[in-house]
Amino acid sequence: MEADSIVTQEREKGETSLPYGAIHVGGILARTITLVRHAETVSNISGTWQGQTDSPLSERGRLQVERLRDRMDGHGAGLLVTSDLGRTRTTGEVIGAGEPLAEWREFDLGAWDGLRPEDIKERYPEVDGVRFGSGDFQPDGGERFSDFKVRIRNAFGTLAARMGDDDHAIVVTHGGVIQTIIGMLLGVADQSIILVPSNASLTTVRLNGDDVQVAMFNDDVHLDGGVVRPPGTRLKLVRHAQTEANREGRWWGRGETPLTEEGRRQAEVLALAAAPFDSIVSSPASRALDTATPVAMRQGLDIAVVDDLAEFYFGEWEGLTVDEIRSADPDGFRRILEEGFDEPRGVTGETFAIAGERIATTTADLAANGSGTIGVFTHGGATRAYVAGLFGIPFANREVLPVQRNTAHTEIISGDGGPRLSSYNVASHLASL
Fold first, then answer.
1. What is the pTM for the complete model shown?
2. Nearest by Cα to 267 from 426, 406, 411
């Protein structure tokens, strides 16, 4: 398949009928692309902007490379490419012999390269308050941001076209590149609500025919907390462990369903792996409370129950499998699940948008009245609806984000600029099961 047969659509342009933000690659199934940000550099430590001028890895960056090597051991790829800059090539060497490609370089900052954000604002007051990815701009002697997006879109499309069925590619590149790819895939007009991923972190994209899915964003758990986060309250939304309903494929929103034996193991492993929380809150559902309890006991914390963290309410569909829903309510099944109309589930249930708004309001209250890192034990459907609402992704295009895995976390950082996505669907602790 030729690279120019790839059709790319950004949601804000609305050029075709493809899903919002989708990169369409027809006829190829189940390809996986892992995006790795380079390890920390001296410039990262100093807080200076770093584009295409290179900087050596810091001491912590070298440690990150070692941990990345351990994390990637045995997880090779049929295709490994890197940016041709030194910091990405050095990081990629621990994975394998990569192919250096200039199109995967970071944004060319021109005269801004090597400056701190406050220096840029002082010298160029017209950009004061503008976050990277929030609009079109061009530094003196640098790249126009809209041109950068085209370059990265084409690099991604060319890579996808080189892959065959079930292939796995790894790309070692830069934070701005990964942030921009995820923003385009999700169809986000203002990608600054997506945080730049951590140094040496992993982000996974899956391509399946016409469908593109951001399967995981910014997994940095292997770095054992050795990462820098922007200021603000950190909300870690944790999905409950596996339940009997999950195993049977039944849709329980407000109904009760116990954890399976596997689910109890997942909760115990999570308790061993979870980073320290300053407080823990939970949905009233027993499956969320039973997942939170081992974590709370290990960390010596109480659990506050918050009713509005409950799962999506499915109305008359509660407790049914997909086949049973199709049989009991064929018209509703068709309109909602096949045609993508966001109507109340099971006649009396919630819509996708309403569930997302409920979680958005609740987490905003938690952030306003809390501090530090809050463990928020909740549900997969409600969390996806919330994140989709944050990005303006409509229900019909929800599959660009998967429902979180059991005990996976999604992190939102709420600061002066409002809520921003820090990670999505991270469950690397489950590798031990």
1. 0.90
2. 406
Number of H helices, E strands in the chain: 13, 16
246-264 pLDDT per residue, tens: 999 999 999 999 999 999 9
Domains 3-223 and 233-432 fall in the same CATH topology: yes
Location of structure tokens 């503008």: 130
CATH topology of domain 233-432: Rossmann fold (3.40.50)
Structure tokens at 322: 């997909």
Confidence of residue 432 (pLDDT cuts 50, 70, 90): confident
* Cβ contact 243:257 at 8 Å: yes
- CATH of 3-223, picked from 1.10.3630.10, 3.40.50.1240, 3.40.50.2300, 3.40.50.300, is 3.40.50.1240
Q: Give the model's pLDDT for residue 129.
A: 55
Decide the pairing of beta strands 303-305 and 233-239: unpaired
- Of residues 247, 239, 322, the one with CA closest to residue 287: 239
The Cα–Cα gap between 127 and 98 comes to 37
Q: Are 308 and 251 in contact (CB under 8 A)?
A: no
Give the domain ranges of the chain: 3-223, 233-432
What is the DSSP secondary-structure string of 190-237? -GGGBPPPPTT-EEEEEEETTEEEEEEEEE-GGGTT-S---SSEEEEE
Distance from C-alpha of 21 to C-alpha of 370, rounded to nearest angstrom: 34
Q: Rounded CA gap, 259 and 413, in Å?
A: 29
Order of strands across the sheet with 31-37?
99-101, 79-83, 168-173, 31-37, 202-208, 211-219, 418-426, 409-415, 233-239, 373-378, 279-282, 303-305
Residues pairing with 282 in the sheet: 305, 377
